[in-house]
Design a protein that fits this description.
single chain; alpha/beta; 7-stranded mixed beta sheet; 23 strands; globular; RibonucZ/Hydroxyglut_hydro
Length: about 725
């Protein structure tokens, strides 16, 4: 354990973060408290190893740097996640992800650098890719965007044989599930839907069963248990049974590939099996966990920042307390039931802060869902592995595999409809509070503190983390980076208003569900008083359908009620299904709360243009002398008639189009700042003429394509 803490501290110090020294010091303190002060040197040695590993990893050359920004055609081995090149030796992420089976692939596109987190709660692609490499595995440093597959050849060999066995004779959804549970390949399952707006992946997350699609200790335990049972049935001597299960782990790791959770499970399982094979008996669990952490982090130092690594180790740390907690349950309950209940609950509690902070929601039905799904997985995982070994001949057993897979999907579909507890971003103080509360619980289990003290500590930590938000709620305008589109959140005490929800023209990417909703959760927005759909353009309102399905909404405001626009019709249909009242607003309509007033300036509603942009809902936001205007896509003639008055902040209409943000409105409003919501596009937004006009007015320009999400405080 001193060595593990030293390695972690050294990696953090290598990343330039000062508190890595505290982690290293904690390792030395463990040695001192264990009355073996000499082992503090082990923590220092671990610190040097961790620091050196991180620095070596950071110093590896970027083989594809000369081609960044260029149009290229690449040929390599596609593993479902990355394209592996042989010359130069590198790995490349591909976007959009090709809908082809793993194997040889030729693909063309443009190489770009990965993006960081652009919206609260959004995916930090750059950080994630940095964690996918190590000392012996190239780190993906580029993304091939606008990718087009030129040719592909499915993989052969043992892995190709195994994949054919997993899918032989199964339906698409069943086959997708088997590839996820047996190979960790979630590409196909991520494209499946139970219903419109209800994806299979979201159902797994809402039911607390996402871990079933990530290979982990459960897979290793079930498969090694099956191997041991088979060897026992064949009457193999006890020691050789464990040795046989140990020999199974290496080819299994080669089959499924290296990831944090499966590598951790294989290392720990291997250590335990080796101990039994040598007759050494049960190993110390914390020593084995520490050993696995060291073995994972030295070759892959940035796994320390990987959510999968964190969840895997936190869950197994929670499980080490299973026996003590199970003893406190009624003795008349069957031991297997007690352990199953306790293990599920402890794993959920141990991973709670990471899951809440990363995914913005906590499942409320995880305990019953996991108990039922766990029983199904106990049969499905070994049976699926047998099917994989049989290859194309697996149709002989896949009738049963398909039945179990359908039952598991049914469990996910039912429990995935249960409500979830939404959660905002967890900061440093939140993680410290979670750690203190967890420590109090562990000390109570160990008999070191009394129950009232542990409970009081838990309540104190909860109150201290709740107080800041209650005493000083957010007051701000949040201009979400939704790419080439618009989405603005207005926040004050008792008032949450979303103006537009972005959209993805010519793509099936759901901006509302994948970008806007996670951002709302990360910001702690659990409901919306109003949602405003400014006009019937895809890049403004397509994402609102996903928002209405995921977040309680008080009222939907629209301008012109068009009857022939499919995107607007879809939004109105969802509003009707969710019971959201729809209001057609006109100039003068307003809402006011906590000193913040929203006023509709446009449309007047007496005459409608044939151009959607002319009919955009335009709003002003006023708060204690501060004034801002949101103009949708109004063009020059219309925006000059709105009468915005003097402004502090102007949100440029139509993403900086040359036909908006004219001299007239700039002269009338004299804004100090102009916000342009824009993304990568072929329209020439923002137009140089617009930027020139804004510059001439003396206003400062803020662009979401360069800055990401912009958060503007309200007085």
């Amino acid at each position: 354990m001193p060595l593990a803490f030293g390695v972690m501290g050294g990696i953090v110090l290598g990343l330039g973060v000062w508190w890595g020294g505290l982690v290293l010091l904690a390792g030395a303190l463990f040695a001192v408290l264990d009355s073996r002060a000499v082992l503090a040197l082990l923590a220092l040695a671990g610190g040097g190893l961790g620091f050196g590993s991180e620095r070596l990893n950071a110093a590896r050359p970027d083989r594809l740097a000369p081609w960044v920004g260029a149009q290229v055609t690449l040929k390599g081995e596609w593993d479902g996640q990355f394209l592996r090149l042989s010359d130069p030796p590198a790995r490349v992420a591909v976007s959009p992800k090709p809908r082809v089976l793993p194997g040889q692939m030729v693909v063309s596109g443009r190489l770009v650098r990965p993006e960081g987190r652009r919206v609260p709660g959004g995916f930090d692609q750059a950080a994630w890719l940095r964690g996918q490499g190590g000392l012996f595995v190239p780190t993906p440093t580029t993304v091939l965007v606008a990718a087009r597959v030129r040719s592909s050849t499915p993989e052969g060999g043992g892995r190709g044989w195994f994949r054919r066995g997993l899918t032989a004779g199964l339906g698409e959804r069943q086959a997708a599930l088997m590839q996820a549970t047996e190979l960790g390949d979630r590409n196909d399952i991520g494209r499946e839907d139970f219903a419109e707006g209800y994806s299979v992946r979201d159902a797994f997350a809402r039911s607390g069963l996402s871990h079933l699609m990530a290979l982990s200790g459960q897979n290793v335990a079930l498969l090694t248990g099956a191997v041991i049972w088979l060897l026992a049935w064949l009457r193999v001597p006890l020691g050789w049974r464990y040795a046989g299960a140990l020999l199974f782990l290496a080819p299994y790791l080669l089959l499924v590939g290296v990831s944090p959770s499966i590598f951790r499970a294989v290392l720990m399982g291997g250590a335990v099996l080796l101990g039994y094979a040598l007759g050494r008996g049960r190993l110390d669990p914390y020593a084995v966990i520490a050993l696995a952490a060291v073995a994972c982090l030295l070759p892959f130092p940035l796994w320390l920042l990987d959510v999968g690594f964190q969840l895997s180790f936190l869950a197994v740390l929670g499980l080490t307390l299973s026996a003590r907690v199970a003893e406190r349950l009624p003795a008349r309950w069957p031991p297997a039931l007690r352990l199953a209940l306790v293990a599920t609950l402890l794993a959920e509690l141990a991973t709670l802060p990471v899951i809440a902070g990363t995914f913005g929601q906590l499942p409320l039905v995880g305990l019953p869902a996991n108990l039922i799904a766990g029983a199904l997985m106990a049969a499905l995982v070994p049976l699926g592995f047998v099917a994989g070994l049989l290859g194309p001949f697996a149709v002989a057993v896949n009738w049963l595999t398909g039945l179990l897979a359908s039952l598991l999907l049914g469990v996910v579909e039912v429990f995935g409809q249960a409500p979830v507890l939404t959660w905002g971003t967890v900061g440093a103080a939140g993680f410290v509070a979670s750690g203190v509360a967890a420590l109090a619980g562990v000390l109570w289990l160990l008999g070191r503190v009394r129950a009232p003290v542990a409970l009081g500590t838990l309540l104190a930590c909860a109150v201290l983390t709740l107080l800041p938000g209650l005493l000083r709620p957010a007051r701000e305008l949040v201009f979400l980076d939704v790419g080439q589109g618009d989405s603005t959140l207005i926040r004050a005490r008792g008032l949450n208003v979303l103006v537009d929800g972005g959209g993805s023209v010519g793509s099936d990417f759901d901006v509302g569900t994948r970008t806007v909703v996670p951002a709302l959760r990360a910001l702690g927005v659990r409901s919306l008083n109003l949602v405003v759909a400014t006009h019937a353009d895809t890049d403004h309102i397509e994402g609102l359908s996903g928002v209405l399905r995921a977040v309680p909404v008080g009222e939907l405001w629209i301008g012109q009620r068009k009857t022939d626009d499919p995107v607007l019709n879809e939004l109105l249909t969802v509003a009707r299904e969710q019971g959201v009242p729809v209001r057609e607003v006109r100039r003068g309509d307003r809402v006011s709360r906590d000193g913040v007033t929203l006023t509709v300036l446009w449309p007047r509603g007496n005459v409608w243009s044939t151009e959607d942009n002319d009919n955009s809902v335009a709003l002003t936001v006023e708060s204690h002398g501060f004034r801002a205007a949101l103009l949708g896509d109004l063009p020059n003639p219309a925006e000059a008639q709105v009468g915005v008055g003097d402004l502090d902040l102007l949100k440029a209409a139509h993403h900086g189009s040359r036909y908006s943000t004219g001299e007239a409105i700039l002269k009338e409003s004299t804004p100090h700042d102009v916000l342009i919501s824009v993304g990568r596009n072929t329209y020439g937004h923002p137009h140089p003429d617009v930027l020139k006009r804004i510059g001439a007015s003396g206003a400062q320009v803020w662009r979401t394509d360069r800055l990401g999400t912009v958060r503007w405080p309200l007085p």
